[in-house]
Each structure stands twice: as C-alpha cells, then as structure tokens.
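[step 3/7] inverse_fold.run input=structure_tokens len=237
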C-alpha cells in the first residue's frame, strides 16, 4: 500500500498533519501558514502545543491517566512515493527488489515494536499486553514516506556509499480506548537521521538499523514522557 493510499484511508485530518510535519522544515512563513494544522479535527480532537512534534491532538474529555497497560498494533510501513525507482539514481548500483521492500518493511516494524516495548515498559513503566481491557491503551502506529538513503540491497556490489543522512520518516500515532474504540489522541512527526556535524558517513544495513533505532527511541521516549506526565510521574519516581 502506498503512503498516499494510507493517508486517504486515515482521512483528511491525518493528511493535514502530513503537510504540517513537512512544513516545519521549510523556513518560509508563507508556506508554513498554508499548511497550518486545523485547531480541531473531524473527530473532535483539539490541537495542543507541543514543540517536540509537528502536530498533536487530544480529545477534550480524554483522560490518559486511567490507562496502566498498553497494547501496540503492528506498525504499518509505507515508502516515499517512487522511492524504489529513485534509489536507482544515476551512478548508483543499488537495485531494489520486491523482496527487499518487504524485508525493510518487516525489519522496520519489528524494530519499532522492540524499541517501543522497551522504552514504555522499562523502569517500572507500563505493562505491554496483547488483549483489550478497561485500563488498556491501544496504540496504532504508522510510518509513511519512509526514505532510506542507502538500503544496502545489492549484495554483489563492492561499492561503499557515503551520505550525510541515513534517511527520513514520518510517524503517525493514534491512541484509542481498547474497549470502546474511542480515539483519544493523535500525533504526527517527521525526522531525518543525520550524521554529526553533517559529515559524510559510510552507510550500510548495520548503520541504517542503528540510526533507525535512535530515531525510534526518541519517539518512544517522547510518548513515555507524555504518558508519565499525565500519570503525575516525575523523573525521580
């Protein structure tokens, strides 16, 4: 499924979040205003100020402090449009097969789950469960517009590729009451994994995984921090 199709399924509000996430990287105020996220979504969530993400919404009556357990749905992954074709850019020996695409999706989804379970449950955190319940928060995640700079798909090439970025991704995350199915909150953010000081860095599958883990860890840490704040927890607890 393409990222455009997935955005269509999630609805116009989420598409607006995608624009909002992209506009934050554009210095022009005019462009940012054009893609300003709405103050309220079609399903009643209201915009909240959060400097750490591109856009975040929460239900006016939502009380996330009543949830002590978390259920994480499988991550949906969609590549940037035409990414596999662009990977065959001039001078590159990279060849992307359908099995490579599925492997990257599977690896990304597995890594996401591992990282989020680790960050959300560590240090007396939240119990991760596989069934709905009265105190279970359902997390529905998606990564779209995934753009891996060097997918390391061609095993026959001895070329070494150096770039200043490992890749870019947009995270959408929705929080639901696992019993009623009511949506409680929604957030979107876009990040690029860059080399320190913008230096060219050798990239392969191993470095890509390390960079992806760091990116996912930042998102997982942010979700954990926000949940802890709503539960009245502090860093010293």
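[step 3/7] decode complete -> sequence:
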């Amino acid at each position: 499924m393409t990222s455009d199709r997935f955005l269509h399924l999630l609805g116009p509000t989420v598409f607006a979040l995608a624009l909002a996430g992209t506009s934050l990287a554009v210095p022009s105020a005019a462009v940012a205003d054009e893609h300003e996220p709405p103050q309220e979504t079609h399903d009643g969530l209201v915009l909240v100020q959060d400097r750490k993400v591109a856009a975040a919404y929460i239900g006016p009556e939502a009380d996330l402090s009543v949830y002590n357990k978390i259920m994480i749905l499988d991550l949906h992954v969609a590549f940037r449009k035409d990414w596999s074709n662009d990977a065959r850019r001039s001078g590159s020996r990279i060849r992307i097969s359908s099995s490579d695409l599925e492997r990257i999706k599977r690896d990304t989804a597995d890594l996401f789950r591992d990282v989020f379970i680790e960050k959300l449950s560590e240090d007396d955190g939240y119990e991760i469960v596989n069934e709905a319940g009265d105190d279970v928060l359902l997390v529905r995640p998606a990564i779209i517009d995934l753009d891996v700079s060097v997918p390391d798909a061609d095993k026959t090439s001895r070329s070494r590729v150096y770039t200043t970025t490992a890749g870019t991704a947009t995270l959408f995350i929705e929080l639901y009451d696992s019993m009623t199915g009511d949506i409680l909150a929604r957030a979107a953010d876009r990040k690029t994994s860059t080399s320190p000081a913008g230096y060219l860095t050798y990239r392969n599958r191993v470095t890509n995984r390390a960079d992806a883990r760091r990116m996912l860890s930042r998102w997982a840490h942010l979700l954990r921090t926000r949940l802890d704040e709503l539960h009245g927890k502090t860093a010293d607890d």
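[step 4/7] annotate
Residues 1-33 have pLDDT under 50 and may be disordered.
The beta strands are 46-48, 55-58, 69-72, 76-79, 127-128, 136-148, 161-163, 165-177, 183-194, 201-203.
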